[in-house]
Specification:
With 285 residues, the protein is α+β, with helices and mostly antiparallel strands. The chain contains eleven helices and eight strands. The protein is globular and about 60 Å long. GO terms for molecular function: DNA-binding transcription factor activity; sequence-specific DNA binding.
Length: 285
C-alpha cells in the first residue's frame, strides 16, 4: 500500500562520520525485503550501486528494471524507487550529497538522469570491484588525519568512473552538436520550471531562441517535440503525487500549476492512457 503520512518518503542515509558520503557492501541471501527499501522512497543524495552477485528487481519512477550480476546503477535524488525482489545478492553502494560532489560531476549526473541499469563487461566490472574495495578500506580509517579528503576524493573518483561508463553507453562526445547542447539546456530548465511554464515559448525565451528552432533541436536530438517533454515531465510528477500522497486530483492539478482542472484530467488521460483516479487505484497494491 502507498504511504499516507507524507507525500514522498525520503531516506536519509547514514554518513561515514558526518562526511556527506556513504559506502557499504551488503550480502542479502533470500531474506525478506526490509520495509525501508520495499516502500517507495527517494534518497537524500546521489546513489550508486554495483551488483556483485545475484539478481534484483527494482522499480524506478514506475519503470521496472531487473539487474543481474556485474550491473551498475545510478539514481538521482529526485527519482522515486523501491526494491521489488532480490535473490542471493551481494551489492556495494555508495552515495554522496551535492556539496561533496565535484561541480563538473554534478553537471554530468544531471545530464545522465534517468540513467537506468548498466551491464558491465568482465574487465570493467573487475575495475569497479577493485575501486570499491579500496574505497571501503579508506572508509575504515577514521583516525587518519586526512580522512575526510580520502572519502571525498575516493568517492568522486568512483563517480567519475561511473559517469564514464554511462557516457560510453550514450555515445556522448566531448564536442556535442548545437542541437544536443540546446536540448540539454532545455531539459535543465524544464526540471526547474515545469510547474510554472507549460508552453514552449517560455523555454525558447529563456534560451534566447525561436520556438521553431528550439523544437527542431529537441526533436532532432530526442525524436519528440518540446510540448511532448513538458507534458511527460508534468505527468511523471502527477503520478508520483497520486501514488505517494493523499492529495486529491484537484490539489495535484493546482500544485502542478493547472487552474483548469478538467484540462489537467484530459492531459493526464492522454499521456498516461488512463484518468488520474484510475492510475491511483491501479497502483494501490
Amino acid at each position: 500500500m502507498r504511504k499516507t503520512n507524507k507525500p514522498i518518503p525520503v531516506n536519509y542515509l547514514e554518513d561515514n562520520f558526518n562526511s556527506g558520503i556513504t559506502i557499504e557492501r551488503m550480502s542479502l541471501h533470500d531474506m525478506p525485503i526490509f520495509d525501508i527499501v520495499a516502500e517507495a522512497h527517494r534518497h537524500d543524495r546521489h546513489s550508486f550501486f554495483l551488483l556483485e552477485n545475484g539478481t534484483m528487481t527494482i522499480e524506478i519512477d514506475f519503470q521496472r528494471h531487473r539487474l543481474k550480476r556485474s550491473s551498475l546503477l545510478y539514481m538521482h535524488p529526485d527519482q522515486v524507487h523501491r526494491i521489488l525482489a532480490f535473490k542471493d545478492v551481494v551489492v556495494s553502494s555508495w552515495a554522496i550529497t551535492n556539496e561533496y560532489l565535484h561541480p563538473e560531476h554534478l553537471k554530468l549526473l544531471e545530464k545522465l538522469t534517468p540513467g537506468g541499469p548498466l551491464p558491465l563487461r568482465k574487465e570493467t566490472f573487475s575495475l569497479f570491484y577493485q575501486a570499491v574495495t579500496l574505497f571501503l578500506q579508506f572508509s575504515e580509517q577514521p583516525q587518519d588525519s586526512v580522512y575526510q579528503s580520502l572519502l571525498k576524493d575516493s568517492c568522486n573518483a568512483l563517480i567519475a568512473l561511473t559517469i564514464s561508463q554511462y557516457l560510453k553507453r550514450a555515445k556522448t562526445t566531448d564536442h556535442p552538436t548545437r542541437a544536443e547542447t540546446v536540448t540539454q539546456a532545455f531539459r535543465e530548465l524544464l526540471d526547474h520550471h515545469y510547474t510554472a511554464d507549460k508552453r514552449p515559448a517560455a523555454y525558447a525565451r529563456q534560451l534566447n531562441l525561436s520556438v521553431p528552432y528550439l523544437n527542431e533541436c529537441v526533436r532532432n536530438t530526442t525524436g519528440f517535440s518540446v510540448s511532448h517533454h513538458i507534458q511527460q515531465r508534468v505527468v511523471l510528477e502527477a503520478k508520483r503525487l497520486l501514488y505517494h500522497s493523499d492529495k486529491s486530483v484537484k490539489e495535484i492539478a493546482s500544485w502542478l500549476g493547472y487552474d483548469d482542472y478538467p484540462y489537467f484530467i484530459r492531459l493526464f488521460t492522454k499521456v498516461a492512457g488512463m484518468p488520474p483516479l484510475s492510475f491511483r487505484h491501479k497502483n494501490l497494491d
